[in-house]
Design the sequence.
């Protein structure tokens, strides 16, 4: 039963009790009233009975008095008394409830009326005075005695009745008074009981729930909850139990979360420590590496980390934004050839745009006026999403490399000069001796020529080494200009003439008449062609032909193709031909003396002029080396 | 024809002198640029052959001085240089020299080369 139902039930009981109480009071009151009415009736009956008795006594008295005296007043009085009497039985009957009493009254009334007839008769006779004896021998007396006895009896009966009624009424009045007094007490008791009942229904479970709540708030989840009833308290208890378990669950969750959080904190602390160690390591590394390292943020390019090497090399940018901009505006970098390096080509700037720069060679002039050649390498830093967050740039001071390079060039130059000076003397002396001094012994002349040709060879080797070192140093200087191909061929053939002389190999050249001028450095182009021709003459078998074919290609080049009928070159060696110090085999080196630099120099000379070199060879049939030179515009 | 030859290397100087003499030149030799400036007045050569690299005063400076002096500025100057690069030649020509002969020179044709440069 629901709590509301129970409360309504309790209130219903109260209302019912009140109604019963009211009905009881009403009933008691009506009983009391009826009893009082009955008492009043009995009293009135008694009064009328008494009056009737008195009237009857007076009737007899008047009759007797008249009979004795004959005085008319008595007769008049008698009649008056009778008149008074006549209505009395009827009136009295109205107050008699008992049928037997009523019949008795009626009989008494009839007796009295009979008596009255007799009385009247006796009085009449007295009036006539006919018979005095009648007076004496009154025949009315006996009935009157009976009547009066009966009346007395009636009166006593009525009195008893009255007494009885009065007692009853008084009892009832007392009882009602008692009831009236007792009711409030009863009401109070009932109220107390109801309140206790309500308290039991309502407050006890609530108190239990409250107690549980207190326990739970104290952290004790093992509290016993009130039994699960199907009412509001039950619902409350259920809700409370749900809440309690939810709270418990949440507390568990919370505890778990706290544990997890502690674990995470520990993990975080470890990671943090690791990261800090890592960072410290990295910072220490960055600080100590000899390379200048700079880390910038994107997109501003503001330097966020810079090591000491970078401070020394390029200086430190000022903190103030304005100063910073002016600093970089006045920061000068140039390429090796002296051209200004625009800001957007500066490696770190390129990195901020997402480009990777490796080994950009620049010459920087920091504010302190130094000029420092550096190698710039820079790369963008990206986040997980690939967005550029900054850039890292490394600068390597290559002053020492430049110095080494300079020293090497100087060394080569000095060595070549120092070598060539005595060779000049030797060669000059030999030439003058061979030409001017007569030598009767042919062996002496041969020996002189051996000395001379080996001197030439030494000079050629030195020239080759000088050339290759210039090429490698990027210091090959070319002076291209429009030049006539016929003259070029003529000069080339003249140069190799000395070698060809005395050889059985025939040198054939084919140059179309309408060949256009080429744009080339004539000395260096002649050197390239002479290199190829000398090689061909060296490798050509006796009594064979070496041809120089000059043709124009549609692409705007002139091709010089030199073909020999030699042993040819194996296909797998072709790619090595144009490399430094490469000859096909050791035997060749001994047989055809050379430095192995000729083709490498040729290739470099031709390519530096925008041309290319090529070779086609067939084992046993010969080889064709070709170079191309751009046509003059 | 009288040539003033400035060459610091005695052997090279000897070869050059013999070679030029063989070609019919009268050769006066000196060892450096300072001596050139000393002797150019008294000797009054028809042409001067200057080595590029010499101690005390190199060919470069000697040539500048010769060309700066009205008395000597009309005497043709030919450089003898191991640096046969175009830039060096261009530099020499810019100084007022009329030609350049690379070293090592050919002892048999040196005289002919000089004559060719002098336009004779």
Sequence:
């Amino acid at each position: 039963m629901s709590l509301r139902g129970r409360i309504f039930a309790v209130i219903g009981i109260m209302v019912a009790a009140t109604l019963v109480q009211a009905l009881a009071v009403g009933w008691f009151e009506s009983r009391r009233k009826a009893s009082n009415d009955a008492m009043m009736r009995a009293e009135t009956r008694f009064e009328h009975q008494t009056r009737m008795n008195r009237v009857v006594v007076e009737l007899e008295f008047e009759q007797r008095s008249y009979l004795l005296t004959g005085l008319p007043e008595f007769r008049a009085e008698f009649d008056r008394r009778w008149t008074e009497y006549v209505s009395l039985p009827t009136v009295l009957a109205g107050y008699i409830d008992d049928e037997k009493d009523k019949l008795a009254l009626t009989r008494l009334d009839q007796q009295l009326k009979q008596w009255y007839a007799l009385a009247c008769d006796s009085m009449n006779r007295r009036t006539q005075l006919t018979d005095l004896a009648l007076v004496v021998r009154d025949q009315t007396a006996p009935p009157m005695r009976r009547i009066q006895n009966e009346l007395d009896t009636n009166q006593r009966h009525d009195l008893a009745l009255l007494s009885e009624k009065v007692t009853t009424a008084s009892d009832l009045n007392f009882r009602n008074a008692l009831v009236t007094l007792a009711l409030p007490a009863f009401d109070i008791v009932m109220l107390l009981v109801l309140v206790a009942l309500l308290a039991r229904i309502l407050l006890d479970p609530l108190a239990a729930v409250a107690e549980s709540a207190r326990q739970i708030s104290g952290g004790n989840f093992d509290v016993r909850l009130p039994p699960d009833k199907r009412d509001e308290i039950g619902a409350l208890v259920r809700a409370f139990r749900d809440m309690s378990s939810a709270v418990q669950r949440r507390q568990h969750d919370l505890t778990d979360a706290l544990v997890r959080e502690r674990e995470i904190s520990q993990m975080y602390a470890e990671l943090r420590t690791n990261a800090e160690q890592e960072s410290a390591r990295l910072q220490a590394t960055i600080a100590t590496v000899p390379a200048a390292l700079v880390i910038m943020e994107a997109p501003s390019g503001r330097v966020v980390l810079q090591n000491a090497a970078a401070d020394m090399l390029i200086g430190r940018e000022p903190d103030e934004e304005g100063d910073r901009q002016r600093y970089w505006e006045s920061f000068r970098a140039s390429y090796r050839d002296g051209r200004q390096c625009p800001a957007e080509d500066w490696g770190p700037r390129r990195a901020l745009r997402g480009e990777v720069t490796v080994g950009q060679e620049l010459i920087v002039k920091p504010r302190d006026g130094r000029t420092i050649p550096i190698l710039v390498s820079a790369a963008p830093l990206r986040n997980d999403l690939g967005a550029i967050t900054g850039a890292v740039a490394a600068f390597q001071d290559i002053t020492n490399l430049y110095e080494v390079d300079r020293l090497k060039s100087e060394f080569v130059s000095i060595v070549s000069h120092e070598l060539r000076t005595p060779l000049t003397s030797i060669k000059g002396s030999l030439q003058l001796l061979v030409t001017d001094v007569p030598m009767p012994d042919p062996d002496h002349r041969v020996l002189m020529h051996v000395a001379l040709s080996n001197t030439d060879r030494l000079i050629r080797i030195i020239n080759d080494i000088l050339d290759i070192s210039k090429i490698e140093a990027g210091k090959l200087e070319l002076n291209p200009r429009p030049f006539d191909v016929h003259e070029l061929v003529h000069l080339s053939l003249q140069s190799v003439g000395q070698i060809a002389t005395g050889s059985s190999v025939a040198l054939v050249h084919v140059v179309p008449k309408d060949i256009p001028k080429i744009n080339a450095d004539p000395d260096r182009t002649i050197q390239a062609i002479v290199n190829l021709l000398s090689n061909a003459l060296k490798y050509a078998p006796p009594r064979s032909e070496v041809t120089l074919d000059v043709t124009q290609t549609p692409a705007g080049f002139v091709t010089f193709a030199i073909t020999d009928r030699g042993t040819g070159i194996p296909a797998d060696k072709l790619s090595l031909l144009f490399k430094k110090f490469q000859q096909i085999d050791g035997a060749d080196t001994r047989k055809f003396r050379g430095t192995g630099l000729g083709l490498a120099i040729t290739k470099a000379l031709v390519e530096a002029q925008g041309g290319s070199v090529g070779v086609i060879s067939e084992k046993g049939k010969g080889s064709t080396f070709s170079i191309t030179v751009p046509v003059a515009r | 024809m009288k040539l003033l030859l400035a060459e610091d290397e005695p052997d090279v100087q000897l070869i050059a002198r013999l070679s030029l003499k063989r070609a019919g030149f009268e050769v006066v030799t000196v060892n450096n640029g300072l001596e050139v400036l000393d002797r150019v007045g008294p000797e009054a050569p028809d042409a001067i052959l200057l080595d590029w690299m010499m101690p005390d005063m190199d060919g470069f400076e000697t040539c500048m001085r010769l060309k700066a002096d009205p008395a000597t500025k009309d005497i043709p100057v030919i450089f003898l240089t191991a640096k046969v690069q175009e830039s060096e030649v261009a530099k020499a020509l810019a100084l007022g020299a009329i030609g350049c002969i690379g070293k090592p020179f050919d002892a048999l044709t040196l005289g002919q080369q000089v004559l060719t440069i002098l336009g004779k």
